[in-house]
Write a structure and sequence with these properties.
It is a single chain. It contains 11 helices and 14 strands. Helix 1 crosses helix 2 and helix 7 packs parallel to helix 9. It has 2 domains: 59 residues, DNA polymerase, domain 1, CATH 1.10.150; 265 residues, Aldolase class I (TIM Barrel). The strands form 3 sheets. Strands 3-4-5-6-9-10-11-12-13-14 form a 10-stranded mixed sheet. A hairpin with a 5-residue loop joins strand 4 and strand 5. It is 35% helix and 19% strand.
């Protein structure tokens, strides 16, 4: 069956023309799918019954099947989706007191990066998601919120997977989130562990979305122990790529810092980070480590985090502590995990 979320306007026009429908029908179907966020073809009341029946028989509105859903005491919703081939992914909807409604969506089933404190990284990698599968996660939350008289305001590509390992589909999905869901570029954040060639490529895309880098350590020895990708692109190369990105785009870079007790919450790391980022147009986003079954570290204490933040200010580096959401349902940063059907080989990251 044809997944309508995979088609652009030209695809809608081609399909309806092939079915012998007048040209205006493509616009009607498009509006029902992407503007009115229809959940079924029966809702498309201005279409002829025969056309609705054919759409039902030969097309579908997405491929994600909700396998499970959990709600946190703080209002966060986590969904486990089953894909058409049986793979499983998770995505999260987070409400905030300032009326933001943020969807955290996945770009891969599993992850090949192997970050030691991340539940997804502990799973291994299964496959890339298509642009339509990435887009549909946000579309479903947008539809849910609109049914409640609310709206999706922000999207972060920080769920399962490394977005820049799945670069083409990620960028295509971002453009669709902007064009078809109406999410402003500055309300979309894409996060990477530091794939240097893709950061440089992303600087040339002309997108005003936010870029976040998972940093977590300020020396190569410490960072390589946490993020194996640092052995391929060490800090000097990563920071140089960030400077290049800022110069080309004029956009601030956010550095994500998972605060781990006794490991990267020390004054030594704070001074090293301050020296590393001094003078850069950037911001450090600190979040205490969220628990995962495969990593034994503990979250840093808030007095140590506050001392860490104060030290960074001495270098002119701004930092804030992120509000943790959905911890009781394992929906926090680094906690997303599901069963994946692993292939025999994991693609090498180029």
């Amino acid at each position: 069956m044809i997944n309508l979320y995979e088609l652009d306007r030209a695809g809608f026009e081609s399909l309806l023309k092939e079915w012998g429908q007048p040209a205006f029908r493509a616009n009607q179907v498009w509006e029902w799918v992407f503007t009115k966020r229809a959940q079924s073809f029966d809702e498309m009341t201005n279409l002829p019954k025969a056309l609705r029946e054919r759409l039902t028989a030969e097309t579908r509105l997405g491929v994600l099947e909700v396998a499970a859903e959990q709600s946190s005491k703080d209002g966060t919703v986590k969904r486990l989706y089953k894909l058409a081939d049986g793979q499983l992914i998770e995505s999260v909807l987070m409400p905030y007191d300032d009326d933001r409604r943020t969807a955290c969506i996945s770009t891969q089933a599993g992850c090949a990066m192997g970050c030691v404190f991340c539940a997804t990284g502990q799973m291994g990698f299964a496959r890339h998601l298509t642009a339509a599968e990435i887009f549909e996660q946000a579309m479903r939350y947008s539809r849910l919120l609109e049914s409640e008289g609310d709206r999706l305001s922000n999207i972060v590509l920080m769920g399962m997977g490394e977005p820049f390992h799945n670069y083409d589909a990620t960028v295509a999905a971002i453009r669709r989130l902007m064009d078809e869901l109406g999410i402003g570029a500055r309300h979309i954040t894409v996060s990477t562990v530091g794939l240097v060639p893709q950061i440089k490529r992303f600087a040339d895309e002309g997108l005003q979305v936010r870029l976040a880098i998972s940093l977590h350590a300020a020396t190569d020895e410490e960072r390589s122990a946490l993020l194996p990708v640092n052995k391929r692109w060490p800090l000097a190369e990563l920071i140089a790529a960030c400077h290049e990105y800022i110069k080309k785009t004029g956009r601030r870079v956010t550095f994500e810092w998972t605060a781990i007790a006794g490991q990267n919450d020390t004054l030594e790391q704070a001074h090293a980070l301050g020296n590393l980022l001094r003078g850069m147009l950037c911001h450090v986003n600190i979040i205490p480590l969220n628990p995962t079954g495969g990593y034994g570290g503990d979250p840093a204490a808030f007095d140590r985090i506050n001392r860490f933040v104060a030290t960074l200010t001495e270098y002119g580096v701004q930092a804030t502590v992120r509000v943790r959401r959905g911890i009781d349902i394992a929906a926090g940063c680094g906690q997303l995990k599901s069963t994946v059907l692993r292939p025999e080989k994991i693609p090498v990251v180029e």
